[in-house]
Write a structure and sequence with these properties.
Largest sheet: 5 strands, mixed, barrel
Pfam family, one: PNP_UDP_1
Structural class: alpha/beta
Radius of gyration: 18 Å
Pathway: Purine metabolism; purine nucleoside salvage
Enzyme class: transferase
Strand content: 15-25%
Number of strands: 9
CATH superfamily: Nucleoside phosphorylase domain
GO molecular function: purine-nucleoside phosphorylase activity
CATH architecture: 3-Layer(aba) Sandwich
CATH topology: Rossmann fold
EC number: 2.4.2.1
Number of helices: 6
Amino acid sequence: MGDIYSKIKETISYIQERFSVTPEAGIVLGSGLGNFKDEITVELEIPYADIPHFPVSTVEGHSGTLLFGKLEGKTVVCMAGRFHFYEGYTPVEVTYPIRVLKFLGIKTLFLSNAAGGMNTQFKVGDLMIIRDHISFFQHNPLIGKNDNDLGPRFPDMTEPYSFELIKKAEATAANLGFKVHKGVYCGVTGPTFETKAEYKMLHVLGADAVGMSTVQEVIIARHMNLPVFAMSVITDLGIREEDNVITHQEVLEAAHAAEPKMTAIFKALIADL
């Protein structure tokens, strides 16, 4: 039993003393997507700072609490605010909460993020279902000794994002009359936004959108055989004609504007679990 396993047990024990119902789904909210939590009938809210071995969120747009409650009749646990490598956390610390969600009993993980668009069909405020990712630019969180109690040494990544959930999300969006894209997300370290040359390079490599989160969380989820559905809100365009500057404030505003559509899709998928 590795050290991380004993830490997880301590964290789980602390949480389950306060909330004993097993959640069916775990949700992670990205930059500017914190209003989603208003959809949840919250039964318990625990600040990250109170949870043993949990990191603390340091970024504007990430509130830093673990919420438990009901959504569409299902018990869910929601991370309002996530952690990023650029905050100075190790990949193991960044992904620690994903391990905790799995050990709390979730059967499906839902991830959201704000991303820069590189596909020329994309506009600010568009939604992209992530069908695959490129993670070579981020440190793999499984580097180091493998704990076989958590998952295999060499996890398969043929289906990092659940094909079944992607199909359901596309059908839901069509029923609701929402236009959604489907594409490849590239994870980078940040915290700088990409240069124009970097955006072009990533697009040539096959990425439709780029961001500073998500892929490490997905790797850890798949290591534990946890199905994942993830969606990006396109909050800025990396490949563009004008010379405007991208600001974090603009990213948050674009995410807020697109949030109701993403929320509707997430709710429909959770209702169907």
